[in-house]
Design brief:
Blueprint: H1 5-12, H2 18-30, H3 34-52, H4 63-74, H5 76-80, H6 91-103, H7 112-123, H8 128-144, H9 150-170, H10 177-180, H11 186-191
Helix pairs in contact: 4-6, 4-7, 6-7, 7-8, 8-9
InterPro entries: DUF924, TPR-like_helical_dom_sf
Protein name: DUF924 domain-containing protein
Organism: Pseudomonas solani
Length: about 200
């Protein structure tokens, strides 16, 4: 078994299609549960630390390993270090890794539901040009899936559009301000009181 396989099995499971995968894993992907965070810490914490320290680079030689390394840098720190600055510590390496892997065609070798977690790295960037790329790539991903999966991928695209709108307005994600020790503007403080202002 490849060293990244347990992580991919936990993150995606083994389901017949994208809809079944998303239905079974949405709570893991986008929920906030202490039990899930603890499981991630116990099972994958060492690999997260290795990835954040610049290790496991050889994983990126294969599409599935590349995807797993992206998860270790982008998704799992948000669980292990929730509401701490280290939650975003892997973002810059993840972004570079994604750009490199796309240039090498690794994303094209993954299923659409797995590519969601490649594109999400663009969605997490506090940079407007990268946000525009996220919307373009999620649009292309939505357009490439079967009609039966279109609604699910419309939802992923909608989240990308919403992230883009926040960066277009503020140039950063205001909900990160308190975590990162940044002062919020009056406009940002008002925005944070609105429903759906925190991703």
């Amino acid at each position: 078994m490849q060293p990244w396989q347990p992580l991919l099995d936990w993150w995606f499971g083994d389901f017949a299609d994208a809809a079944e995968t998303a239905a079974a894993r949405q709570g893991l992907w986008f929920g906030k549960r202490d039990s899930q965070d603890q499981h991630a810490r116990q099972c994958f914490g060492t690999q997260v630390e290795q990835a954040l320290d610049g290790g496991l680079a050889d994983w990126a030689e294969q599409p599935e390993g590349w995807l797993a390394l992206i998860l270790l840098l982008d998704q799992l720190p948000r669980m292990l270090f929730r509401d701490q600055p280290r939650a975003y510590a892997g973002d810059s390496r993840a972004l570079a890794l994604v750009r490199d892997g796309i240039a090498r065609g690794l994303d094209a070798q993954l299923t659409p539901i797995r590519r969601v977690f490649v594109e999400i790295v663009f969605e997490h960037a506090e940079d407007l040009a990268t946000q525009e790329l996220a919307v373009l790539r999620y649009t292309a991903l939505r357009d490439a899936v079967s009609p039966a999966e279109r609604e699910l991928f419309d939802d992923f695209l909608d989240y990308a559009v919403r992230h883009h709108a926040v960066i277009a307005r503020f140039g950063r994600f205001p909900h990160r301000n308190a975590i990162l020790g940044r002062a919020s503007s009056v406009e940002e403080a008002a925005f944070l009181k609105e429903p759906g202002s925190r991703f």
